[in-house]
Amino acid sequence: FLPCEVPKGELWGAFSGETCLLAVITPCATGGKDATKEIVSYNRMNAKIVTDIQTIISVVGCVKSRGRSTIVDRNEGL
């Protein structure tokens, strides 16, 4: 996590003078599959991105086996 002090100024709107908490995340390369609807495995990751922590809805885990990782997602109904 990265704390980010936003400078005061009209450009920043509601974030002016506030502290934002940013997260560095590495999305899985799933080929567009949705792990909330089916079992999804992957063997590579996409590029890291930085996002405002408020945009993160849930966090999932993974199980590694035989050179692949399978997403463990129990967020159905969120």
Main attributes of the structure:
78 residues, three-stranded antiparallel β-sheet, 6 strands, elongated
Total domain modules: 1
Would you report the number of β strands?
6
SSE succession: EEEEEE
Task: Give the overall form.
Answer: elongated
Secondary-structure class: mainly beta
Query: Which regions are unreliable across 5 or more consecutive residues at pLDDT < 50?
Result: none
Radius of gyration: 17 Å
On the 0-100 scale, what is the average pLDDT? 89
Major sheet: size, sense and barrel closure? 3 strands, antiparallel
DSSP helix count? 0
Tell me the distance between the termini: 24 Å
Strand residue percentage: 25-35%
Amount of helix = under 10%
The spatial strand order of the largest sheet comes to: 1-2-4
Question: Please, could you describe this protein's structure?
Answer:
The protein has 78 residues and is mainly β. It has one domain. The protein has no helices and six strands. The chain has strands at 2-5, 19-25, 41-42, 49-52, 61-65, 68-72. Strands 1-2-4 form a three-stranded antiparallel beta sheet, with no helix packed on it. It has a three-stranded antiparallel beta sheet with strand order 3-6-5, with no helix packed on it. It is elongated, with a radius of gyration of 17 Å. It starts with a strand and ends in a 6-residue tail after the last strand. 1% of the residues are buried.
Task: State the gist of this model.
The protein has 78 residues and is mostly beta strands.
Topology:
Elements: E1 2-5, E2 19-25, E3 41-42, E4 49-52, E5 61-65, E6 68-72
Antiparallel strand pairs: 1-2, 2-4, 3-6, 5-6
